[in-house]
Amino acid sequence: MSTPETTTVGDAPVLRMESVRKTFGGSVVLRDVDLEVAPHTVTALIGASGSGKSTLLRCANLLEEIDDGAIWLDGEEITDPRVDQDAVRRRIGVVFQAYNLFPHMTVLDNVTLAPRRVHGVSRAEAEERARELLERLGLGGKADAYPDRLSGGQQQRVAIVRALAVRPRLLLLDEITAALDPELVGEVLEVVRDLKDQGMTMVLATHEMGFARDVADQVCFLDGGVVLERGTAEQVFGDPRQERTRRFLRRIVEAGRL
Fold first, then answer.
1. What is the secondary structure of the chain as a DSSP string?
2. pTM score > 0.85 for this model?
C-alpha cells in the first residue's frame, strides 16, 4: 500500500482539542477534554461503553456541536462559527460501527460517490483511485458486487476504502469491529495496522485492547467523559497511574481480552 497523501504543517498537531465540553439533555458527556494528535500517529481511545469515546470522535468531525472549548485541525480552529463545516469534513475520513453502504449501489459506486459528488473528481480519476485502493485492501474482485453479497469484514473494508478515497488528512475509526463476527475482526484490524505503517494519522475508539496496545502511539482512557489517563501504550497498559484505569484493565484481563 502506498503512503496516504498528507500535508504536514510544521510539527503542529493534526488535531487539537482544548477544554471541549459536550452535554446531552443536561448530562455531561465530555468534560473539559484536551487532546493532541501528532502527524502520522495512532491515538486509541479506550474505556467502558458510555465513557464518551464515540462522542469525542463525532465532535472532532463536527457531527456534534460542542458546548464549550475549541477544536483545531492543522492549526485552523474548526469550531469557529465562521468556518465552512462541509469543507472541514472533506478533510476528515470517518468509519463507523455500521458500514453505512448504499445497498442499491455497487462497491465501486459506493467508493467513488464522495470523490465525484463532493470533491469534484472526474469519474475516471475516482474509479482509478477506487480500484487501486480496493486491490490493496484485498477487494480487487469486488468492485462490481453489491454490499449484500459481501461478508461483514469485506463490507467494513469497503467502508474504510470509501473513507480513504477522499484522501483524508485524518481518519477517525469508531468501534469498527464491534459489529463483526470474531473471525472477521482480524482482517479489518490488519488493514488498520497497514495504514499505520504507511503513515496515516488516526484516532480510533476501540474495545480491542490487545490491538490498541500493539498499534497505538498514544492511548487515552476515558471515564465519565473525562480523559482520566493518557500516555504511551506501554505506560497505560503496563503501568497505569490511575486506580480507575487499573480496575478497568484488570476486568479486561479477567475477561481474557488482553
1. -PPPP----TT--SEEEEEEEEEETTEEEEEEEEEEE-TT-EEEEE-STTSSHHHHHHHHTTSS--SEEEEEETTEETTSTTS-HHHHHTTEEEE-SS----TTS-HHHHHHHHHHHTS---HHHHHHHHHHHHHHTT-GGGTT--GGGS-HHHHHHHHHHHHHTT--SEEEEESTTTTS-HHHHHHHHHHHHHHHHTT--EEEE-S-HHHHHHH-SEEEEEETTEEEEEE-HHHHHHS-SSHHHHHHHHHHHHTT--
2. yes
